[in-house]
Design goal:
This protein has one domain (2-167, 202-318): Carbonic Anhydrase II (Roll). Helices cover 23% and strands 24% of the residues. It has eight helices and 14 strands. Strands 2, 3, 4, 5, 6, 7, 9, 10, 11, 12, 13 and 14 form a twelve-stranded mixed sheet that branches. A two-stranded parallel sheet has the order 1-8. The radius of gyration is 19 Å and the shape is globular. The structure holds 2-acetamido-2-deoxy-beta-D-glucopyranose (2 copies) and zinc ion (ZN). The site of one 2-acetamido-2-deoxy-beta-D-glucopyranose (NAG) has 3 residues, from loops.
C-alpha cells in the first residue's frame, strides 16, 4: 500500500494532473502567479465514473482503491476523538488571502496552521469547498463541506472536514439583508418570523469569504479576500469531536492513506452567501464510496477492471 501510494504521488506530480483536494500540496504544486484550472470535472466524460480513465495509471485508485472517500459517516466507520485533545491551529490572515477558482472548487491559500496527529505534524496548505457535502453525516447530505488540507513532511495528507449548513438565524449585523434574501430564496413575500433558536448564526469567516466569491466566477481567476479571522472556525471545531478514519483524496488521483478528521461542529452560511457560492461553485461532490476496506464501487464495472489491469501493468516497473 505504501509503495502504491508513493507510485501514485510520483505519477501524479510527473503528469501534472490538477485536483482541488490536492492542489497546493506536493501532489499538485501551485504555479506562482497563475491559477491552474482542473482537467477533471463532475459531469459526463470528465466525471467521477471516469476519473481513473482520464489518466492511467496515476488515477487508478479512483476505480480500484478500497479506502476511498467520501463515505457515509456512520458510527461503525470512524473513531471519535475529542478535538480539544488535538493540536489544531490556523493563522489569521490580517492582510487577506488569495482566493482562487480552480474550475472544480474555490480555494483559499492559507498562511500557516498545523494539525498534530499521533505526534506527527501536518502543515495547513489550503482550504476549499464542496457543494453539497461529500461526506454524509449519518446518512444525510449537508449543504456544503469545507476541506482544510494539511501535509506532513513525508507527503502524507490530513484533511479536516467541516460541514456547512444554511443559517436560519440572521447574523446580528446582517439581520435585515439576510431576512430579505430568505424571502427571495423561498420565492414568497410573507413576513419571516423568528427562526428556531438552535440553528445558529452565519459564520463570519464564510460571510467574509463569500462576499467576494462573485469576483472569481471565471475558472482560473483569483482575488485577495478581506482580512480573514480563523479563530472562529478553530474554536468551533475544538469544541466538537473529530470523526477519524483513513480514506483518500476525493478528487483525482484519489490517493489513499489520507487522515480524515471530520468535525462534528458545523458552520452556517447565510442564504444570500450560499446562493453566491453555489452560483460560482456549482455541483462538485464525488458520490459516496463504499465503507473503508470494502471493494471499490467501480470494480463491479468494466471501468474498474480496466483501471486495475492498467494499474498493475503501470506500477510494475517501480516495484
Ligand atoms: C444515525 O441514524 C440512525 C437512523 O438512520 C439512528 O438510529 C442513529 O441514532 C443515528 N446516529 C447518530 C449518532 O445520530
Ligand atoms: C408583514 O409586515 C408588514 C409590514 O412590515 C405588515 O404591514 C403586515 O401586517 C405583516 N403581515 C403579517 C401577515 O404579519
Ligand atoms: Zn476537497
Amino acid at each position: 500500500m505504501a509503495r502504491l501510494f508513493q507510485t501514485l504521488i510520483f505519477a501524479a506530480s510527473a503528469t501534472r494532473v490538477f485536483a482541488s483536494c490536492a492542489y497546493g500540496t506536493h501532489l499538485m504544486p501551485r504555479a506562482e502567479g497563475e491559477v491552474k484550472v482542473s482537467t477533471f470535472g463532475y459531469f459526463g466524460a470528465n466525471g467521477p465514473l471516469n476519473w481513473a480513465a482520464l489518466a492511467l495509471p496515476e488515477n487508478s485508485a479512483c476505480a480500484t482503491g478500497t479506502n476511498q472517500s467520501p463515505i457515509n459517516m456512520v458510527e461503525e466507520v470512524f473513531q471519535v476523538i475529542p478535538a480539544a485533545d488535538v493540536t489544531f491551529e490556523v493563522n489569521d490572515m490580517p492582510d487577506g488571502a488569495e482566493f482562487e477558482n480552480l474550475g472544480t472548487t474555490v480555494e483559499v491559500i492559507t498562511q500557516g496552521g498545523r494539525l498534530v496527529l499521533d505526534n506527527k505534524e501536518f502543515a495547513l496548505q489550503q482550504f476549499h469547498f464542496h457543494l453539497p457535502s461529500e461526506h454524509l453525516d449519518n446518512g444525510t447530505s449537508q449543504a456544503m463541506e469545507m476541506h482544510m488540507v494539511h501535509q506532513a513532511e513525508d507527503g502524507q495528507i490530513a484533511v479536516v472536514g467541516v460541514y456547512i449548513n444554511i443559517a436560519t438565524e440572521a447574523a446580528p449585523a446582517a439581520a435585515k439583508r439576510s431576512l430579505s434574501s430568505r424571502s427571495r430564496l423561498f420565492g414568497r413575500q410573507e413576513n419571516v418570523t423568528a427562526p428556531p433558536a438552535s440553528s445558529g448564526a452565519p459564520s463570519t469567516l464564510l460571510e467574509t469569504l463569500f462576499s467576494v466569491v462573485d469576483q472569481i466566477s471565471v475558472p482560473g481567476s483569483k482575488v485577495t479576500t478581506p482580512p480573514l479571522v480563523m479563530s472562529e472556525v478553530v474554536d468551533a471545531v475544538k469544541a466538537g469531536s473529530f470523526q477519524a478514519y483513513s480514506g483518500s483524496l476525493t478528487t483525482p488521483p484519489c490517493s489513499e492513506n489520507v487522515n480524515w478528521r471530520v468535525s462534528t461542529a458545523k458552520l452556517n452560511v447565510s442564504p444570500a452567501s450560499f446562493i453566491k457560492a453555489r452560483d460560482v461553485i456549482g455541483f462538485n461532490s464525488r458520490f459516496p464510496q463504499n465503507a473503508p476496506g470494502s471493494p471499490n464501487i467501480l470494480m463491479v464495472s468494466a471501468l474498474g477492471s480496466a483501471a486495475a489491469a492498467v494499474s498493475v501493468a503501470g506500477t510494475a516497473p517501480a516495484a
